[in-house]
Amino acid sequence: MSLLEQIRRPVEDLLRECRTYMCDRMTADDPFVQSMLDYIIGNMGKGVRPLLVLLSSRLHAEGVALGERTNLAAMLVEMIHTASLVHDDVIDESPMRRGNPSVNNRWGANSAVLCGDYILATAFDAGMTSGHYDIPTFIISAMRQLCSGELVQNECNRTSTMTRELYLDIINKKTAVLLSTSAAVGAVAVGASRECVERMTEFGTALGMAFQIKDDILDYDVDAQTGKPSCNDLREGKITLPLLSVLESADECERQRLVALLQAARTDECAVEQLREIVTTRGGLQAAQTLMDDYMNRARAVVAMYPASDVRRSLELLCEFVAARNN
Question: What is the pTM of this model?
């Protein structure tokens, strides 16, 4: 049994129910639009965010049947994530997503953007017509922060500027906020106390920060199974934590040289390889790993506050999964 299967085990039935709930609501009257939705839903990833919603709900409502509120919360966070990936692939002009042609590659950028918008509109229409207004209201701020993080990152990419403070703010908004929202809204969905909601927000934030830093480390790994070429961030002009750690320890002359290499890496594979070697040999990956481990330890400390149970064990294993993954 894989690690992810072990994590899912306490909520296997809930995951199947949630999948049905989502598919029943992600529909379109037009066959062409429906074909796009079917393709996107059929190629979704591991479902970490809805899994986190369900685990959080079960953690705070042991032995109680979970209903529409939890399914709604899980669907909303997954559809925000899914739509953001469709839009990201348009922005990055990515031809592939998880080993399959991206939506923009298959149907064009215009249709991809509109389909991402359709997913968001359909998800929140379901949220508002459900009558559980607190769930979409709780989640909607995550969308605003996600967009803000992407906008700031795009500007930093354009100008080849980045600071540690900016980097941490960006990854908090573009990645961690949706995981923190997933963990917190799972507790909200079952009426958990404000203290528990805040505790799960803290857990999800730490897990999400570690998740994104791990992504940034994997980008330099030629053996990682991410579905994209290694060092793709460098080709897009992104300064992530491994390179940032090297830049922070460089003098001004060396920093200018590294930034020039980064700008050249957009079109020059030799520059990409040079930067990969520099980041690797000068400890950039180790520095990023150290910070990732720190966030992971924060997440584990929150989980340790709960009594031992199968669900708590799944959350502990989820931390292991994020730390050990290679895709």
Answer: 0.95
